[in-house]
Each structure stands twice: as C-alpha cells, then as structure tokens.
Amino acid sequence: MEPYDKEPHMDWNFSLDHEQEPIIPEPPRPKRSWTNSILSFFALLYKAKVFLAFGSLVVSMLLYGLTFGWAFGIGLAVIIAIHESGHVLANRIKHLDASWPTFIPFLGAMINLRQMPRNADDEAFIGIAGPIFGLFATLLTLGLYEMTQIPALRWLALFGFFMHIFNLIPIVPLDGGRTVSFLGWKAWIIGLLGLVVVLFYSPFTGQIHIDPLTVIILAFIIWNFIGRIKHGPGRDYNAIPFWHKVVYTALWAALMILSIVGYLITGSGF
C-alpha cells in the first residue's frame, strides 16, 4: 500500500441524466430614435407639471421675437420668466399649492393659486418677490447695455422698468396691490388713478394713447378688483404685526421709486 502523500483527486465533471433546456437568446433591443427621445422628453416635462409653463414660454418668445425683433423679444420673455420665478419661490417658501406660471403673449404671465395665502403677511411676501427678481433682471439688462451699447438692451431695460411701474400699482390683482393689500381702500384709490395714467398717458410725448389692448387690460383688472371687494378676506386677514406693514410698505415704495427713476433715466435719451 503506497503511503498517502497527496490529496485525493475528485472529479466533479458529471453529466445529468436529463437533457439541458436550450438557451433562447434575447432579441436585440431596438435603438431609440430621435423621435422617441423627443417624445419621451416632452412626456417627462408634462409629468413634472412644467410642460405648460415651458411651452407657453417658448410660444411667447416666438411671438415677441416676430413682433419686436429676436433680441428684444427673447430678452423680454426672459425678464418675465425671472419675475415669475420670484413668485414661484415665494409660494414654495410659504408652502402654498400653486401652479407653474403660464405665459400669455402680450399680457405677461399668470400663476394659479390653488390655495389662498393665510393672511396679508403671506400675500405681501409673495406679491413683492416677483418685482424684486424682475427689477434685478432689468438692472442687469441696463448694465449690459452700458457695457455693450446694444440698442435692443436699452429698449429692453426701458420696458422692464415700465412693466414694473405698472405691476407695482397698488391695486389687486397686480403685485403692488397684493404687497400692500392690508392698506385697503387707502391704496386702491391711488391705484385706480395710477392705473389710468400708466395705461393711457406717455410722459415722454405728453400724449394720451387709447388702444384695444390697454382697454382689455383695464377691464380685466377692474373686474378682479370688484371681485376682491365683494368676496375679499375678512378683517382678521389683515391683522398682521404693525412693523411688517411698515417694512412691506417701505419696500413697495422703494421698488416703485426705483422703477420710475430707472424708466425716466433710461428713456430720456430716446
């Protein structure tokens, strides 16, 4: 008997009694076409609830560009989008259920509030956020004009200042009216007078202009204003700290003065 000097060898190769099932190869996956990729992209946007906002922004850019020139038209849509992003951010901070902005060519944009602000403090916070963002974009545009001397940028800054003068008029549903809604009729009387002046009077020509679009805008604002008076919030809605009222009123006045001064200085050379 030979000495045990190595490990025993075991053969693990054995055959099964039954036949192995044939392996069926998977069919090759079809390559994604550009069409499918584009459709998937738009489906993703729709599910993310930004399809309407994105699509309406593109449509606004196209219509503004065709009407006013591409540099001015695209820039105008961008300033409006930055303005609206301020409202979107404020709504998120205050945890209010609101839609993404829908851009309406030649009328601006609209955000659908599915949940109203809890009080005048929240409404002022949301109302002033848009003009802060929008005026920052307008000042940036004016700075770019000073560096490049591109005429379209100057026109864009001029319109940006005018847009915020109009938007800061203290009457609902404009942002100015929402910012100082706690002042009630004291601000609304001034707002109604200012609205008529801004819509129909040009300080540079000293002439009165009346066109169908401004009449439609005026009618829409007055209709919303009447609805606010009839179905507005109760007295408790405006019961916010006094110093909050002072801060929001001062901030509103500062932005309005900035808009007016910027508009007059930018437009004085035309």
TrEMBL record:
Membrane spanning residue stretches: 63-83, 95-113, 125-145, 152-171, 183-201, 208-226, 246-265
Cofactors (names): Zn(2+)
Domain Peptidase M50, residue spans: 72-145
Pfam families the record matches: Peptidase_M50 (PF02163)
Subcellular compartments: Membrane
Coarse class of the protein's main subcellular location: membrane
One GO MF term attached to the UniProt entry: metal ion binding
Topology of this chain in the membrane: Multi-pass membrane protein
Recorded GO CC terms: membrane
Record GO biological process: proteolysis
Keyword annotations from UniProtKB, A to Z: Hydrolase, Membrane, Metal-binding, Metalloprotease, Protease, Transmembrane, Transmembrane helix, Zinc
Transmembrane helix listed as a keyword: yes
InterPro entries: Peptidase_M50
Family: Belongs to the peptidase M50B family.
Name of the molecule in the record: Zn-dependent protease (Includes SpoIVFB)
Taxonomic placement: Bacteria, Bacillati, Bacillota, Clostridia, Eubacteriales
